[in-house]
Design a protein that fits this description.
There is one protein chain. This protein has eleven helices and twelve strands. By secondary structure, the protein is an alpha+beta fold. The protein has two domains: about 200 residues, GAF domain (Beta-Lactamase); about 70 residues, Orthogonal Bundle (Arc Repressor Mutant, subunit A). The chain has a six-stranded antiparallel beta sheet. Strand 4 and strand 5 form a beta hairpin.
Length: about 280
């Protein structure tokens, strides 16, 4: 997560360090595939996530710059996707755009709010009401991973990439995802997180994790005050079970400048509970 003016949007670094708590969180970004990822496969997915963010066509040079790929290999990759039918080439603008074939991928996975558009409409309402960054996150091993992001509408904001990861035991979205997880499993997650820590990462304090999780269970949400990124705040609320058709835990978060989020904490929490009830819960 990186604070940038709207006119100078760039991707965040590969990790962020909290100056107050000393905690480090790894973020998967455009230019750095996750550990063990096949490079070519990771690049294909990063291209599609890039288009999901910008929601328009783009030229090779822009794609290569934003994703930090060599321009020559980016051109080859895009042409291959065109040949396979997953990308359209627009000769009048010399740009590329994902094809309708991409639209159909994964539709069989869900018959609920994701497929019928309720979830996206809910996120758009939250975005319009708050102006902040809106995040959908899911658990991926020891991480909470951002699977969908609507960027903030303000001129100065934190830029968050789709695919970014935060420690599930030390982030707002992580605590919301773990709200129904037994303490014994949470302790095991903390132990695994410490065992797999990147060099220089402080150990996770299990007692503090359990305190934050207890607070999340009591309040129904978690408010992160610079827990991951200095100057940022994030409020996360768990989504109802089974909305993706496979009973995977999901959470929604509103993230932005700490002072602004703190000032509107109760307003944002009330909004999140209201839209979840209206868009995602059965009548």
């Amino acid at each position: 997560m990186k604070l940038v003016p709207e006119a100078n949007m760039k991707n965040s670094s590969s990790g962020s360090h909290d100056r107050e708590t000393g905690h480090v969180t790894e973020a998967t970004i455009y230019s750095s595939p996750g550990h063990g990822a096949v490079k070519s496969a990771a690049r294909v997915l990063q291209v599609f996530e890039f288009f999901d963010e910008i929601q328009r066509d783009a030229r090779v040079a822009e794609i290569a710059e934003r994703l930090a790929f060599p321009q020559s290999s980016t051109s080859i990759l895009l042409r291959s996707l065109v040949d396979l039918g997953y990308m359209d080439y627009l000769p009048e603008s010399r740009s590329f755009l994902p094809s309708p074939r991409v639209t159909l991928l994964g539709t069989w996975l869900d018959k609920g709010p994701v497929r019928n558009g309720s979830l996206i409409r809910m996120l758009e309402e939250i975005s319009l009401a708050t102006g902040n960054t809106i995040i959908i996150a899911a658990r991926n091993g020891i991480y909470s991973q951002y699977v969908h992001v609507l960027q903030a509408r303000t001129a100065i904001r934190f830029h968050v990439a789709t695919g970014a990861r935060r420690l599930v035991v030390w982030s707002a979205t992580g605590f919301a995802l773990l709200i129904g997880t037994a303490d014994a499993e949470v302790r095991a997650l903390c132990a695994r997180t410490n065992a797999e820590a990147i060099p220089g990462q402080p150990r996770v304090d299990i007692s503090r994790v359990l305190e934050n999780l207890a607070q999340t269970r009591r309040d129904g949400y978690f408010f992160s005050r610079e827990l991951v990124t200095p100057g940022s705040g994030s409020i996360a609320v768990p989504l109802p079970d089974g909305i993706d058709g496979h009973n995977r835990a999901l959470t929604v978060a509103v993230s932005g400048i700490l002072d602004d989020i703190a000032r509107r904490e109760q307003e944002i929490v009330a909004l999140l509970h209201d839209v979840i009830r209206r868009y995602l819960k059965p009548a």
